Amino acid sequence: MQISPINYIKNNNISFSGSFEISDLDALISDFDIDEEKIEPREPETIKEVENSDNSDSFSILRQTIDLDDEGTKTYITYTASTQNDFSNKLTSSILNICKDNQVNPKEDLFMLSGLDDVNRRYILFNSFYKDEQTGADCAQMFYLVSQDELLTNLQKKIVKIFNDPKNRHFLSSSTSNNPLRNLAKYGSNIQTQFRCAIDNLDAISRDFLEEDYYDENGQVLPVIYSADGEYIKYKTIYFRK
Question: Looking at the chain, which terminus has fewer C-beta neighbours within 10 angstroms, N or C?
Answer without folding.
Answer: N
